[in-house]
Task: inverse folding
């Protein structure tokens, strides 16, 4: 799980071009959207692609994303339970 | 009163100028993305969204910020934006096209796709400076001073805008040239083809 | 701000279009009168494994119509569509295509498929514009406007302004975009493609349907040149950015609201004087709701409004121009086109969605569009009669 969390942080920094940030800057429970990392709706779509491409999880209803993408913690949890690759 | 050129900014050949004065030089041999990141840091633009932008928006937001932040003048809330170039948003278009040409492994990136329109650069400038104003993006084979004069003048004459931030913002595969200039009906350099051609040189 | 004085009037006439419904305006209008839509199920595994909905031109049909034109040279699909759309204007105004006649192209992605070819020259929009200008004999430097989904209607506004300030006597406006993998895959990644033919303003709407089209119109200050019985004066225009988000529309409809308000002020037109609204209506959740906000803020909620997206799909840089051409032709007949796909009101505010063809005396038409980059455009048209002048 810890490995997956670090992996997710790396992927997010790369895919969302958060160049000023490093893995250490993101806490597992930080809010990803709004006041936390400040991600927006396009970033959410990008996270959906990461789930699909790297973990074989297809999210068809973007509303589900709200819960899953709350924090690195919730993302890692969901991926562990649902990953197909 | 006729429009005059009030201020202008050039970004080209690894250097940044405001009103003809050199403000910054990049490292020799910098590629565009390294150079423009250096400019962003040097001028302390402090706008993290910069990193998410495609090359065209990076160049446009940098040039407009250096010009608008560097001048001792209030920005008209109805200042129009009039940008132009030759290559539209070529670099990000190529990136998106590559991402969808990988057969089974094709994944379009929403973060790229959203930049595959040249006028997104206008949106980014409008958001940063809260400009609810007229804006339009045109494409020509090369810098077209006659058109910029004709259209910027029509915008102020027809009272669509009280000033116009104009620009030629071209970037394609590490070859780039930004020339941004503010025109307004007040004292300044004559808004003529000759002057524009001199200033972009 | 004070309105400028003594501005010369500018007129539009001879609109035409090339769409999956028909390769000229008459066939398109007849198709709509017959209750048809250009959207159908498409099977193209190169784009998506499962079939999807789209409005795609039959290319054999296009080749056949194009072969009757007499142009030399190698033209792309989009260029052929534009040449066909321009044919009527080129013939009608052949004596006036001089250096005081300008040309504006509106397109978002042009010949985007050129990116997959070794020679990428055709990718560049000025390349397409020069090729077509040369073919139809326009000596002036072509102008390309690439302003997302408002390009088509904004091009009419740009033409009006350049004529009113004496730069040109006339301008030809031509717009076009193709149904491409480039755009389809992008909107898919946005989860914005509708699983069914799009349903603007309906409760069950779930995104856009893409289409392809070319359209054209002639813009002039000289009404004596115009041969058609009805033509329209462009009485007000404005394009105000939301300054809010690069892909999502403003929740309050601020930019669209200001654009409509400015156009109405210039035209000296009050809300009840507008007879119908040809809206953008893409059928995404946010766009349609944003329009409802903006229309209510200018007290247009009782005016019949229609989106043509459920007939043509979203044709991007052509959309605003295509929809203007269709709307004005219906206005000639004192008819309001139908906003297909609308059953249950799916907006938080009232709007008078015109879901069936309606007879009404039409004198003033409002056309609006909104797009990525926070762009919005509103243009008002007023009917003129050649007899009364």
Result:
């Amino acid at each position: 799980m810890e490995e997956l969390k670090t992996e997710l942080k790396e992927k997010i920094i790369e895919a969302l071009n958060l160049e000023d940030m490093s893995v250490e800057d993101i806490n597992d429970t930080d809010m990803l959207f709004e006041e936390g990392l400040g991600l927006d709706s396009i970033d959410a779509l990008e996270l959906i692609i990461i789930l699909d491409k790297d973990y074989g999880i297809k999210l068809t209803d973007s509303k589900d994303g709200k819960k899953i993408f709350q924090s690195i913690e919730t993302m890692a949890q969901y991926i562990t339970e649902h990953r197909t690759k | 009163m006729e429009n005059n050129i009030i201020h202008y900014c050039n970004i080209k050949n690894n250097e940044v100028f405001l009103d003809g004065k050199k403000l910054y030089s990049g490292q020799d041999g910098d590629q565009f993305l390294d150079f423009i990141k250096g400019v962003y840091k040097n001028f302390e633009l402090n706008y993290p969204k910069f990193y998410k932008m495609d090359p065209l928006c990076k160049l446009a937001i940098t040039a407009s910020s250096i010009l608008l932040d560097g001048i001792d003048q209030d920005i008209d809330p109805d200042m129009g934006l009039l940008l132009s170039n030759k290559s539209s948003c070529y670099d990000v278009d190529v990136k998106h096209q590559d991402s969808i040409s990988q057969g089974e492994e094709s994944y379009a990136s929403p973060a790229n796709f959203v930049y595959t329109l040249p006028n997104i650069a206008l949106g980014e400038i409008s958001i940063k400076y809260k400009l609810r104003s007229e804006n339009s993006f045109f494409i020509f084979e090369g810098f077209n001073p006659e058109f910029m004069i004709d259209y910027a003048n029509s915008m102020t004459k027809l009272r669509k805008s009280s000033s116009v931030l104009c620009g030629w913002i071209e970037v394609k595969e590490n070859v780039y040239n930004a020339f941004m200039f503010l025109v307004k009906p007040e004292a300044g350099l004559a808004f003529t083809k000759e002057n524009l051609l001199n200033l972009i040189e | 701000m004070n309105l400028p004085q003594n501005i010369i009037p500018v007129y539009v006439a001879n609109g035409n279009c090339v769409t999956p419904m028909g390769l000229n305006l008459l066939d398109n209008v007849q198709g709509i009168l017959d209750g048809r839509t250009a959207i159908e199920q498409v099977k193209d595994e190169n784009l998506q494994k499962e079939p999807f909905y789209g409005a795609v031109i039959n290319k054999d049909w296009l080749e056949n119509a194009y072969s009757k034109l007499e142009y030399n040279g190698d033209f792309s699909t989009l260029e052929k569509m534009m040449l066909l759309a321009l044919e009527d204007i080129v013939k009608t105004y052949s004596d006036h295509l001089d250096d005081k006649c300008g040309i504006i192209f509106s397109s978002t992605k042009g010949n985007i498929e050129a990116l997959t070819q070794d020679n990428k020259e055709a990718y560049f929009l000025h390349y397409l514009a020069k090729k077509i200008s040369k073919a139809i004999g326009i000596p002036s430097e072509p102008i390309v406007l690439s302003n997302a989904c408002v390009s088509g209607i904004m091009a009419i506004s740009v033409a009006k302004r350049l004529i009113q300030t004496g730069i040109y006597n006339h301008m030809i406006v031509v717009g076009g975009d193709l149904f491409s993998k480039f755009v389809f895959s992008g909107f898919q990644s946005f989860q914005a493609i509708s699983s069914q033919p799009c349903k603007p303003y309906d409760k069950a709407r779930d995104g856009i349907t893409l289409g392809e089209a070319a359209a054209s119109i002639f813009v002039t200050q000289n009404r004596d040149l115009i041969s058609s019985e009805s033509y329209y004066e462009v009485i007000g225009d404005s394009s105000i950015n939301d300054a809010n988000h690069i892909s999502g529309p403003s929740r309050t409809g601020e930019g669209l609201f200001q654009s409509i308000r400015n156009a109405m002020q210039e035209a000296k037109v009050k809300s009840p004087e507008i007879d119908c609204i040809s809206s953008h209506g893409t059928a995404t959740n946010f766009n349609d709701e944003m329009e409802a906000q903006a229309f209510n803020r200018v007290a247009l909620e009782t005016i019949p409004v229609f989106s043509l997206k459920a007939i043509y799909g979203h044709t991007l840089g052509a959309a605003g121009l295509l929809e203007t051409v269709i709307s004005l032709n219906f206005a000639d007949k004192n008819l309001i086109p139908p906003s297909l796909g609308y059953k249950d009101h799916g907006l938080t505010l009232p709007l008078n969605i015109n879901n069936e063809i309606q007879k009404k005396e039409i004198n003033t038409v409002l056309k609006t569009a909104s797009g990525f980059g926070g762009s919005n455009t509103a243009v008002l048209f007023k009917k003129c009669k050649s007899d009364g002048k």
Q: What stands out?
A: Helices of chain A lie at 2-15, 41-55, 62-68, 72-82. Residues 41-55 of chain A form the longest helix (15 residues). The two ends of chain A are 15 Å apart (CA to CA). The CA atoms of residues 9 and 26 of chain A lie 7 Å apart.
